[in-house]
Amino acid sequence: MLSCDIISTIGDTPLVPLKVLNPANAAQVYHLTLTMPENMSGERVRLLRSLGAEMLLTPAKVGMAGAIVRAKELCSDSNYRMTNQFNNPANVEAHYLTTGPEIFKDLPDIDAFVAGIGTGGTITGVGRYLK
């Protein structure tokens, strides 16, 4: 039985799993379901759908917390698994191991690093690396 990944999503983090789990690029087909608030950009929703993700949009008034609650509800079914990017140390580690070194390679004398806030994975991982 195939499992279904549930990711409450913000930023571009889900693009990596989509590339990995896209049926055209994988030996085994996985179904990917993403939850996010309905007020996220239409471009993001369309892009993720075009890459094969099922999008479950939650009411804007409950924000990202509502998307996380919906993801957890889906995970009560054993066919689903939640990657939990908000609390998963692999989120920070990925940016520490990849994004940070890439920035430092291109900008060895960097004076400042600015990042938007979402899960905190980018700023934490890159910040640790650059420190």
Structure explained in plain terms:
With 131 residues, this protein is α/β, with parallel strands linked by helices. The protein has 2 domains: 4-82, Rossmann fold (3-Layer(aba) Sandwich); 89-130, no CATH class. Helix content is 43%, strand content 15%. The chain has helices spanning 15-21, 42-50, 63-74, 89-106, 121-130; strands spanning 4-8, 31-37, 54-58, 80-82. The chain has a 4-stranded parallel sheet with strand order 3-2-1-4, with helices on both faces. Helix 1 (15-21) links the parallel strand 1 (4-8) and strand 2 (31-37). The model has no long low-confidence stretch (mean pLDDT 82).
Topology, element by element:
Blueprint: E1 4-8, H1 15-21, E2 31-37, H2 42-50, E3 54-58, H3 63-74, E4 80-82, H4 89-106, H5 121-130
Parallel strand pairs: 1-2, 1-4, 2-3
Helix pairs in contact: 4-5
Order of helices and strands: EHEHEHEHH
> Helical percent range?
40-55%
Structural class: alpha/beta
> How would you describe the shape?
elongated
CATH class of the largest domain: Alpha Beta
Radius of gyration: 16 Å
User: CATH topology of the largest domain, anyone?
Assistant: Rossmann fold
- Please give the largest β-sheet: 4 strands, parallel
CATH architecture descriptor of the largest domain: 3-Layer(aba) Sandwich
Topology, number of strands: 4
Q: Name the strands of the widest sheet in spatial order.
A: 3-2-1-4
Uncertain stretches of 5 or more adjacent residues: none
> What is the arithmetic mean of pLDDT?
82
The number of helical elements comes to 5
> What is the strand content?
15-25%
Indicate how many domains the architecture comprises: 2
Q: What distance lies between the first and last C-alpha atoms, to the nearest angstrom? A: 44 Å
From the structure provided, what is the oligomeric state, counting identical versus distinct chains? single chain
